[in-house]
TrEMBL record:
Domain Laminin G: 49-215
Compartments, as annotated in UniProt: Secreted
Complex formation: Homodimer.
Protein's name according to its UniProt entry: Sex hormone-binding globulin
Superkingdom assignment: Eukaryota
Listed InterPro entries: ConA-like_dom_sf, GAS-SHBG-PROS, Laminin_G
Keyword list, A-Z: Disulfide bond, Glycoprotein, Lipid-binding, Repeat, Secreted, Signal, Steroid-binding
Any one GO MF annotation of this record: steroid binding
GO cellular component: extracellular region
Keyword Ribosomal protein: no
Function: Functions as an androgen transport protein, but may also be involved in receptor mediated processes. Each dimer binds one molecule of steroid. Specific for 5-alpha-dihydrotestosterone, testosterone, and 17-beta-estradiol. Regulates the plasma metabolic clearance rate of steroid hormones by controlling their plasma concentration.
Keyword Secreted: yes
Amino acid sequence: MSVLCKVMASVLVLTLSLAALGWGDGDQGNGRSEKEVSGQSTVYLGQDRDTWRPLMHTTVKLSDIKGIKSSFQMRTFDPEGVIFYGDTKSGEDWFVLSLKGGAPLMQIRKLNVVVSAAGGPKLNDGKWHTLEVSNQGKFVILEVDGSDGLVVGMHSDVTEDDLSGDLRLALGGILISKEKLLVPLGPQMDACVRKGNWLNLSIPWKSEVPDLWPCYQNIQPGSYFPGNGFAIYNTSVFHVEEGHSVKIELWGDFDQMDGTILSIKAPGQKPALVLVANNKTQELTVTDNEKLVVMKDSLKRLEIMLKADSPQDEDKEKESAFVMSGGTLSVQLGHSSAWKDGRLAIGGLLGENTGESKGNAGSQFLTGCLEKIQVQGRDLDLDLAVKHKSVSPHSCPA
């Protein structure tokens, strides 16, 4: 598999006609209302929906296809996700274009054989790139900004039936089982697509999403919280060794934020730590169970240290320290018990039982951009959160 994933401009034996690319079983009988969208529209692929379900799709008869080339522009900071999918024969033959590690990845199933190829330039630099997928004889070619980015060659001695029936295309998801993919990947992608020309088709696409989210004119790296959603993690996923402290770091312009930045809570206990920004007063409130500290200094970085408990601390009063230095606020908690079997929320206030925010959501959720989030020195991937809604995990409006 590792060799196939690194194939670039090489021949893999079997044939493929790009005209046979389409999409799976669609929306028959699901009861969802659909709206028509132009294939040339600017759309945000990371919109909240079922994880693997495409954002929009279209269906056409194979006999109506006028070309075997599709092109579009894409912009993202996200290193992984599904861009473009298609199949025929109700998902028997299929094609998936995605990013993996920031680079293009094509996966193709044809005549009971699945191949994959990855390589070319990394595209998660936040710039608009033009991608073109075409079929040239026995080769499927992905061009990036006018240059060959990835080539897959296929040939077979098996006689293929004449193609007939429907061709279906999709953006931002797949309609086959994810287990059929040769290379596993996370599907949702914080990306924008525009100026699509899909097999020279002019028919409209369909979307089950009532209102398509806009794409910001300019973006910067970071995680954007629009004020109505947050990300929750079970703290057990971070695998902190017994006796070790926990370090959480946040970067951003905290003067521009409003709402709950972070909260830590164990079941049945009060929140061990809550950080709240107030954009009107330019204050940052830090609450450690019972202690409340209000900071008015401009901050660019927050450092939170949960100290590991030790047997010597059992009978001692546990204290917390709040230290401000050079635009960095260091919060040191005198215990880490709340971290065990607890939850960490980025962008919201944890409630009881459900783990969701309580009270007025508008005053509890964060509005603003966190440029970088780290736990134990490693970047935090919001795509792996237990729950997040309406959050752009890899980009902020600039």
